[in-house]
Amino acid sequence: MAADIRPKRPFRWHIGVFLAPAVLVYTAIMILPLAGTLQLSLFRNIEQHQVFVGLENFRMLFGDPNWSVGFWNALRNNTWFFIIHMLVQNPIGVMLAALLSSPKLRFAAFYRTAIFVPTILSFVIVGFAWKLILSPLWGVAPHLMDLVGLKSLFTPWLGKEQYALTALSLISVWQFVGIPMMLIYAALLSIPEEVIEAAECDGITGLSQFWKIKLPLILPSIGIISILTFVGNFNAFDLIYTAQGALAGPNYSTDILGTFLYRAFFGFQLQVGDPNMGAAIATMMFLIILGGVCVYLFLVQTRLRRYQF
Amino acid sequence: MSIATRSVPRTIGAHAILLTYTVIALFPVILVIMNSFKSRAGIFGAPLTPPTPKTFDLIGYTTVIGQGDFIHYFQNSLVVTVASLFFVLLFGAMAAFALSEYRFRGNSLMGLYLALGIMIPIRLGTVAILQLMVASGLVNTLTALILVYTAQGLPLAVFILSEFMKQVSDDLKNAGRIDGLSEYTIFFRLVLPLVRPSMATVAVFTMIPIWNDLWFPLILAPSEETKTVTLGAQLFLGQFVTNWNAILAALSLAIMPVLILYVIFSRQLIRGITSGAVK
Hints:
The complex is a heterodimer. Chain A is mostly helical. Chain A is built from 13 helices and four strands. Chain A has helices at residues 13-40, 56-63, 65-100, 108-120, 123-134, 140-147, 161-176, 178-189, 193-201, 206-234, 238-244, 257-266, 275-303; strands spanning 43-46, 49-52, 267-268, 271-272. Chain A has a two-stranded antiparallel ribbon. In chain A, helix 10 (206-234) runs antiparallel to helix 13. The radius of gyration of chain A is 25 Å and the shape is globular. The mean pLDDT of chain A is 86. Chain B is an all-alpha fold. Chain B folds into two domains: 4-58, no CATH class; 76-220, MetI-like fold (Orthogonal Bundle). Helices cover 75% and strands 0% of the residues of chain B. At the A-B interface, helix 1, helix 3, helix 4, helix 5 and helix 6 of A face helix 1, helix 4, helix 5, helix 6 and helix 7 of B.
């Protein structure tokens, strides 16, 4: 209105109103508890009082055999868990995506949908279904291996210390291969037709086209998948818990940081729960994940060339 | 098109690999569902054959429905998922609108702050979340789960939705402003309907981890009253280790609703992923 003599920019309440709910819930339920957990890791409960003990909990976690044996074991297992994912899940995902994206492939939608099915299932279903299949009681796995003449190689993988972790990692790979497949598939679809045609004019086709043209173009997506895998793996819990229980048997051979945290925090059977040690383990997981994310953001992402079309 | 990309052996090879992997992906699911309709003798005698009139048996399903309170667990899961989804979408869209529409001091800082949660899993704060819920008396309520899942879903929702909201035409919004619409009306009546497809994508991404989560139900709401279907299935499976009929039936009951929803929404989900929503 003409008579309006407001200052040039009145305080815009609506911005606050739009932001407030999300920021409040996010801060109260996510950021503050995260900070609280980091803080708790510096305290210890002595005679019903929280006493500041500095890095004492971490010294115990790394040095006291009661804790350190379990911790290093969990960290080592977790690293192996991650390595298997990187070596098996992501290459298979890239390969499937490359095949799916080949032009004029029939039934592509069907394959895509079917291969993604395990990803939407809950860990409980996946863990148990595989437990049943690999169980020597039911005999599905030995029977199948007999068909290809490998029956002698069958052992109850989930029950043997030396195989259990690898078997579980592969089950997890089976479940999540759909994610790298989809993301890479999306990246491959976004490569413009002209680039591919230019390559074909130069006589670069088939596999060498994939290695020389497509792969460099999808490297940023592979970087994202690697960091997603890293975060997901170092935060994993559910599959091990469903398939092997909180004790991550046999003899802790499948114990990863998630299950270790669960036992430390809540206690299990003879072990008494200790929130402060739980917080210390969660802090270590936080630092590991943060480290991974930083490596990705500052070392990997900045060096990957992004192509703009 | 060059000859190489169309050659027959290459196509056959591609189909062979994809088909093999499809079989690997579907085999366990089909095996479980197939055997859940069989008698015990059928399950162990011929696990790989579909149920025949001789081996067909619904004993597993009658046990599950008789023993576990699955309908109740199912309701809990539904309430938690739908409520969290509603808050994630509403709050997420509002925040995304504020971040993408207005220039204000601290805008990009706020965006960064909200994006932190995409990379750092909320699970790491569990110790303090449990203390918070104990202090506020929310342990063993569905509210606790809804709050946690809302916080968990918000970062990605804000991130994806603000990308899409940037694409809504400024002319439209300014036309609305000239017509005297308030900012709230512009958001709810003009912008929200336009970003509905991306809301659906976010909904699917948010829904799957919430429905399947085991960690928070186990820690925050393990009571009989508030068990979700995932936790219920986990405990039920633990109790019935030797009753294979019941286990297979319970697994199938847990698989089927998700599978049906997936078949209905898979187009939406896959379009969401491949349209570059998650880059």
